[in-house]
Amino acid sequence: MKTTGAVLRQAPGEWELVELDVEEPRQGELVVEMRAAGLCHSDDHYAKGDAPVASFPFVGGHEGAGVVIGIGPDTPGWEIGDHVALSFLPVCGRCRWCSTGHQNLCDMGRFLRDGTRSDGSYRMWLDGEPAAQMCGLATFSRHTLVDVAAAIKIDPELNLEAVCLTGCGVGTGWGSAVNSAAVHPGDTVIVMGVGGIGVNAVQGARHAGASHIVAVDPVALKREVASRVGATETFTTMDEAIDLAHSVTNGQGADAAIICTGVLTTDDVRQAFASIRKAGTVVVTALGHADTDVAVNARELTLYQKRIQGSVFGESNPLTDIPLMLELYRSGRLLLDELITARYSLADINRGYADLHAGLNVRGIIVFD
Ligand SMILES: NC(=O)c1ccc[n+]([C@@H]2O[C@H](COP(=O)([O-])OP(=O)(O)OC[C@H]3O[C@@H](n4cnc5c(N)ncnc54)[C@H](O)[C@@H]3O)[C@@H](O)[C@H]2O)c1
Ligand SMILES: [Zn+2]
Ligand SMILES: [Zn+2]
Question: Is residue 41 lining ligand 1, measured as CB closer than 6 Å?
Fold first, then answer.
């Protein structure tokens, strides 16, 4: 079938709307008509050239929700009209990671880099050229073809605009606090950068019972929304957050600092490392340039037993945690509608990313009409 999608032809580059050919679904595949897609910073890393793109043209988007309109042969368990959240991490259910409760590390996740199927083949085409699908998804396309391993069937009553956020931003942020930082009741937690990911780390820290949830962001709108969803204190700089953390912990420092800045820098990690107490945890959720290294004081690392924990999708398990988050949303304990600060048509995607950089959005989304 023919569809319209936003692609990069080069990096750095802008998103360009093109007509794409989408193949017929094969066994274990679904055609999804997108209803909403989130403008996560990770797509922008590809557009800006922060992260290497394996091949062009590259169809963007890895946070989305839609409706199943095509099902491959011999693909049981699916019906036309099913509503799905698309997970940027597929879950094969069989690899070492899936079978030990680490679905976020599923071996099928190599799509992340190449944007192909696991055998290296493509399903979307632009003027006869194979088009890579970000994370095997390509949610910036009106229609896409995905592996069932990346589709989570959800209650059709749920609002697909809110659902779309659970495919990346919610699980990544929420899980960074609940799973990766293992926040405990009474903890003091610093969240550095409260955009679409960090704002959910704030909500995760609240659910885990933190007493002080300190949100740091230079942008006033982000601090306001962070306060609305659970931040107890907000600051524009890490220095102020570190002072607060010391003042409420007898000078010990924060139990955890979660880094959700737009483009990770070495300095972000240094500041977060300085903010935590002995045996505290720095969670590195933000992504940086391909050649960014982390450098911290080695004696402090050893003698203060500090922990630096990388985190992908907040160590969440898509198959169980996306439904869990939607249940928290349905019961009013996880706020998602409040995070959507602007809606764009697909044609306005570059404006959406310009707004992200201008600090105008917590999460902007594309709505397909
Ligand atoms: N690990 C994962 O699984 C995963 C998944 C999705 C996104 N990410 C990454 O998470 C990061 C955040 O993504 P996002 O969509 O929320 O981006 P965003 O641009 O919406 O939010 C980043 C926020 O950081 C703030 N910021 C920038 N520098 C800062 C600093 N020095 N101190 C405090 N705040 C600062 C910005 O003002 C902005 O509000 C990106 O690097 C993204 O690629 C990681
Ligand atoms: Zn993302
Ligand atoms: Zn797996």
Answer: yes
Parallel, antiparallel or unpaired: strands 233-235 and 254-259:
unpaired
Task: Quote the pLDDT of residue 41.
Answer: 96
Residue in 260, 264, 312, 317 to alter for ligand 1 test, most ligand atoms within 8 A of Cβ: 260
Decide: helix, strand or coil at residue 51: coil
pTM summary value: 0.97
Residues in the chain: 369
Check whether residue 116 and residue 246 sit in a common domain.
no
Query: Which residue, among 259, 2, 312, has the nearest Cα to 135 in the 3D structure?
Result: 312
Q: How far is CA 34 from the centre of its chain?
A: 18
Q: Is the CB of 234 under 6 A from ligand 1?
A: no
In a domain, 330, yes or no: no
Q: Is the pLDDT of residue 302 over 90?
A: yes
Q: Does 117 fall in a domain? A: yes
Residue 40 Cβ < 6 Å to ligand 1: yes
Tell me how crowded residue 43 is: count the other CB atoms within 10 A of its CB: 28
For ligand 1, whether the C-beta of 260 sits within 6 Å is: yes
Ligand 1, atom 8: closest residue by C-alpha: 286
Kindly report the CATH number assigned to the domain that includes residue 59.
3.90.180.10
In this structure, are 10 and 114 located in the same domain?
yes
CA of 207 to the centre of ligand 1 (A): 21
Written as six digits, the tokens of 230 are 């659970």
Residues 137 and 208 in one domain: no
Examine the domain organization and report whether 134 and 255 are in the same domain: no
Kindly state the average pLDDT of the residues 82-99: 97
Least distant ligand from the CA of 101: 3
- Rounded distance between C-alpha atoms, residue 331 and residue 329, angstroms: 5
Number of domain units in the chain: 2
